[in-house]
Specification:
Blueprint lengths: L3 H12 L5 H18 L8 H4 L3 E3 L4 H5 L15 E6 L3 H8 L1 H6 L3 E3 L6 E6 L9 E2 L2
Parallel strand pairs: 3-5
Antiparallel strand pairs: 1-2, 2-4, 3-4
């Protein structure tokens, strides 16, 4: 199960900044949805689902700007996106063919073509509205 410390801890230590109340509320909602998704019985075979690791949680605007290819308006900055380690890309591969689970848990994911080694999930739709989208 992913916690607020998993989501915020690394960035708070790096940047020495604290998220706003709105960002914390967004992250709480995101983590509830992601944890419910990862608790689905179909994911018990995926190590990335049974023992999830946050590759990237909340980002400050300054830190986000320092990341190559990061979206300037990344949902990580508002507490509405998370990258979960998925070294074998099994979680991504499963979700892209089972988008009904994304619908059920009100989540959207970046296309695995753009996320080798991690699974990007967010709690708000992208501009395209597609459950599986290209950044």
């Amino acid at each position: 199960m992913l916690t607020a410390e998993d989501y915020f801890g690394r960035m708070s230590r790096i940047a020495g900044e604290e998220p706003t109340r709105e960002i914390r509320e967004n992250a709480t909602e995101l983590l509830e949805r992601v944890n419910a998704l990862l608790a689905e019985k179909c994911f018990l075979a995926f190590p990335s689902a049974t023992n999830p690791v946050v590759n990237s949680g909340w980002r400050t605007p300054g830190y986000n700007a320092s990341i190559a290819n990061a979206a300037p308006k990344s949902k990580h900055m508002s507490g509405q996106a998370i990258d979960i380690r998925d070294q074998d890309n099994a979680l991504d591969a499963y979700l892209v063919t089972h988008t009904d689970l994304l619908v059920k848990h009100r989540l959207w994911m970046e296309n695995p073509i753009a996320t080798s080694g991690w699974c990007h999930l967010q709690s708000v739709p992208p501009r395209s509205g597609n459950r599986c989208f290209l950044p």
